[in-house]
Amino acid sequence: MLNILTHGDPSNPKLLIAHGLYGSGRNWGVIAKRLSDQFHVICPDMRNHGSSPWFETHTYFDMAADLAELLDGPTRVVGHSMGGKAAMVLALQHPELIEKLVIADIAPVEYSHTQTQHIDAMRAVDLSGIERRSDAGETLDPEVRDFLLQSLDVKEKKWKLNLDVLEAEMPKIIGFPEVYGTFEGATLFLSGAESDYVLPEHRPTIKALFPAARFAKLNGAGHWLHAQKPREFEAALAAFLA
Known about the structure:
alpha/beta
């Protein structure tokens, strides 16, 4: 159901990477290609993102079910931010589908910071006269501008994001659902040392759901750790997932 990009030999062990809010599978292309010598890497566009279908809901149960359709047995799974929460719900509901789990800079908790300001900024862009992506970037947050512009279809002059549903479902996106069970398998919570998304006070909640959880931080990285420290992020993944 989801649009996917793949890298590497299908006979290699499968690795699924779930992107974050406003992202797409192509955001992970460089890291996926570098890991493709070891893994068959699958990078889906999450629902309401990229070239995947649009729906009226955007819950973590929805996203976990979408990801489960891509797996046919124990698989290594990486999820960043929103994709990390979806991966956690997947692991808690279907532990038999997860061989190893990496959660990048997110915790299974509710956050208070909404992300609707980026939706407002994208809506404010006059797409009628743009000829290239850079034309649309003046009103976007410089920290995430290049990242957001990857979801702009210049030819069709539209965002490849279901902004209306993402806005309506934002409380669920920044929250975390009530989900039962535990995932006993190997799990790494990999965070940016300069990010405040995974705090010491989150660890009891994490350990209650993921008893085998280990924690690591990338120095010099914030929430977008895979973009800010790609080589270090890749090295951490390769070491843990091997």
